[in-house]
Design brief:
The structure is a homodimer. By secondary structure, chain A is α/β, with parallel strands linked by helices. Chain A has helices at about 5-15, 20-35, 50-55, 60-70, 100-105, 110-115, 140-150, 170-185, 200-210, 225-235, 280-290, 350-360, 365-375, 380-405, 430-440, 470-490; strands at about 45, 75-80, 80-85, 195, 215-220, 235-245, 245-250, 260-265, 295-300, 325-330, 340-345, 410, 420-425, 460-465. Chains A, B: One of its GO terms (molecular function) is DNA-binding transcription factor activity.
Chain lengths: ~500, ~500
């Protein structure tokens, strides 16, 4: 390209209507021309005065563009002799066409490809019958806003930094420990509480600290998708744990020698809704001891029981420091808060906190401080009490409506607890077809995630969330569900 | 234990001064006695009336405690014959002494133990000369508070949920893409921007998606601790990349066949401060092509250059979709915000977003929405402009003060950029001793992290952060540093 062509190129590309400053436009055109070898190494450029005249812009504009290109080594300047395309630009990189891009495109790793095949969550967070979410419309955001605002500022600049202790803000760890002691019979010091960015991070931290790649995690079948997904993404193999009418039974499950971890939700098995009785809890702990397993206790919705005080946690029954308790604020507050916690055995507390600091570098202390206040000032307990009444009514209404609409053709989970019902059909029905029919009724049904064979419920069970469904929408939703069931069965 | 002993146990344990309600105190004592087998399976308990009289409490208090213990299967009740310890409690779990706990304590995995040995960060985030942090005291928190408050509420309830797209809030991805295009010559669509919870999560996501366990990452030597730590915690091997006066040289580095990824900070090498010239950038991209490597470009502090416009990114020079650009808001805003981003090649964008949704389940959309506004309304650019002036003055003052105090005995990094200087001693000196002496002067010096041998600078170089040091503290800090150096050299 001769110099006159550069001028042509610039004349065509530059535009006064373009909001990008003229100096930057000139820079961009020349830089691109150097990189795609339209301008070749050693080539002389017009003087800034000559180019400015050609383009009808001020000389300083061209000079500044040249200066930057020289500073960045695209051009070189030699006093007295002029400005040249730098010799170092003559490298084989530049000037690939779109077609050659495709040829060179690298692919994901095997791990990255595998992660794409793992179960994921729904992308809808309200309406009938999205599972796993509370009703954000009833959350006292005006109060939350005030608490968050209280801490964003220059009063305590340490809150603008990283968490000095990877376990989280001390005030929040203290508040969680006090809450758990009273409400969940969880026995712990605040140092054993590790604040995380939600249950996914909690699972990831446990997998990395307690298991090596290739170790197996025995997970309840069916389960919440987060466990197989996050554990597999951390290199663990996944085994199916047998769930019966007493919840997880280790005795009935295949536990190979490389099993290292068992995951359970004894308070309210997800998704089947079974509450594990005391005897089974003790048996599970004994089984974990026999097989030398860590126990992850997922207590995801234990705040919500509608027929009395919740059962005490497995952690509170553990006498040899093998239970890791997993809690979240996503159910008792709102999903997007993304704060959860682990309660780890005392001898692991320091290792977990410092690993969290290393691999996650936590911060967000304004939010952690607001949450500590929210608990300490009683708002947390108050909101739970209020929502317990509301969700209890929703569950009862959903039970009644479903019984009226579907009668003997279904069996519902029994526990008066949580934010969902597990509904099993007592007649042959293709759940995949039902899901499609439900979408036509503008309904979203939860899908149980299976790890191994469960012919008794696989394909004929769905999860119905009611946390995000106001009472006056429940009857309408059940009517839609009834129509979807009838059309699935070919009765209409 | 006979029944009369239970009464004794209760009499001793119960206290009206205890803020825990009496009914809960009774419950706790009996529950513990069942679990430690002080009360044995089948044993009969006194009637609620008899126990209430013995204890001097109301009968309803005892009845409620019994009811809960029965509901939770610790006790059983048989109409007419009384209340008994449940048979199911007769399992070998309970009643471990503290001593036996220790015998059964399980240990961390090999991976968990390894993580504890990886480099970590400082736990101090202000003062002379903590590296890597901006000055939070100059951040407009009043404005930030207003933007965050604007979004916490019921106006847009979707912000209270999880991120529907794992890549982050669309408005924020758009804002970042626009900013990067103008400021950093980064070529991308908003879909290629993946919002993360900071650089640690950015690195973790790249390791999982682009590398398999056992693959090697070639990392600049020295480097920021986050890279070897997070990549090793994700199963990668770490190799040392040679850093010379032009920054990373792949040609001079050992790149084995299982190398899959190279990490570089071309804009302002951390910590040495070298700015990679254009020729080396092109050579690096060619080398990456020859070795079939992904390139992670860490552009951690590129907002801060004090002698003209920043160099364009490596990503903008990349013509075959192998550069992953890593950015953060922790330097340009405040450390604890914990939001960062990746710019990934277009063909990876969907896979990265959906993997993020699966393994991290991101949320915190109130903060993401506030940040989008902060950028779109021009506050981000304005704060950077203001801080660029301030940090430029701090760096100049620190350079001048150091030259005056330590003269020819030191060499400083040359780039007018960033939030730190790299200081190398031109005489034999034990940096470990210097660090201890500096602490006595209430100074914190940054420690360069080495991956392989660097006898030219290892043990005789330190990192001096000035981002968090007001100008009127710089001279005082340098005086303290001078004393520390003199005492290290034994001159005082």
């Amino acid at each position: 390209m001769r110099a006159v062509l550069l001028t042509d190129l610039l004349s065509q590309a530059l535009s006064e209507a373009n909001p990008v400053p003229m100096q930057r436009q000139i820079y961009d055109v020349i830089r691109r021309a150097v990189l795609d070898h339209s301008l070749v190494a050693g080539q002389k450029l017009p003087s800034s005065r000559a180019l400015a005249e050609e383009l009808g812009v001020s000389r300083i504009t061209v000079s500044l563009a040249y200066d930057r290109l020289i500073a960045e080594n695209y051009l070189t300047a030699s006093t007295g002799s002029g400005t040249f395309v730098a010799a170092t630009t003559d490298l084989p990189l530049a000037g690939k066409s779109e077609a050659s891009h495709a040829r060179h495109t690298m692919a994901l790793s095997q791990r990255g490809t595998m992660i794409g095949t793992l179960p994921g969550g729904l992308q809808q967070f309200h309406g009938a019958f999205v599972p796993g979410v509370p009703d954000a419309s009833l959350f006292p955001f005006h109060l939350w806003r005030r608490l968050v605002s209280r801490h964003i500022g220059k009063g305590d600049l340490a809150l603008a930094g990283y968490a000095a202790d990877g376990g989280g803000l001390p005030a929040l760890r203290q508040a969680v420990a006090s809450y758990l002691k009273i409400s969940r019979s969880v026995v712990c010091d605040p140092e054993q509480v590790i604040i995380t960015a939600g249950t996914h991070q909690s699972i990831d931290l446990c997998a990395r600290m307690l298991a090596d790649p290739g170790d197996m995690a025995v997970i309840e079948n069916p389960c919440h998708w987060a466990f197989p997904t996050v554990l597999a993404a951390a290199g663990m193999q996944i085994g199916a744990g047998v769930v019966d009418e007493g919840g997880l039974s280790l005795a009935a499950s295949h536990v190979p020698r490389h099993a290292r971890l068992v995951v359970t939700s004894p308070s309210h098995q997800y998704p089947t809704g079974v509450v594990m009785p005391l005897a089974r809890r003790l048996e599970l702990l004994q089984g974990a001891r026999d097989h030398n397993l860590w126990v992850m206790e997922d207590d995801y919705d234990s705040e919500f029981r509608y027929d009395g005080t919740p059962l005490p946690s497995l952690q509170g029954l553990d006498s040899d420091a093998r239970v890791i308790y997993v809690g979240t604020f996503s159910k008792a507050m709102f999903a997007g808060i993304r704060l959860g916690y682990l309660v780890v055995p005392a001898h692991l507390a320091q290792a977990f906190a410092s690993a969290s600091a290393r691999i996650y570098r936590p911060g967000q202390l304004h939010i952690q401080a607001a949450l500590a206040d929210y608990i300490d000032e009683g708002h947390f307990a108050q909101h739970i009490r209020r929502m317990r009444v509301e969700y209890g009514e929703r569950q009862q209404l959903l039970r009644t409506s479903l019984a009226r609409a579907l009668g003997d053709s279904i069996t519902l989970s029994e526990a008066r607890a949580g934010l969902h019902l597990f509904m099993r059909f007592n007649l042959p029905l293709d759940a995949a077809v039902l899901h499609a029919r439900a979408v036509e009724e503008k309904l979203v049904l939860g899908v149980p995630r299976f790890i191994g064979a469960r012919p008794d419920i696989d394909g004929r069970s769905v999860v119905l969330g009611f946390g995000g469904v106001p009472q006056d929408h429940i009857a309408r939703g059940v009517n839609g569900l009834k129509r979807a069931v009838e059309r699935t069965l070919g009765r209409r």
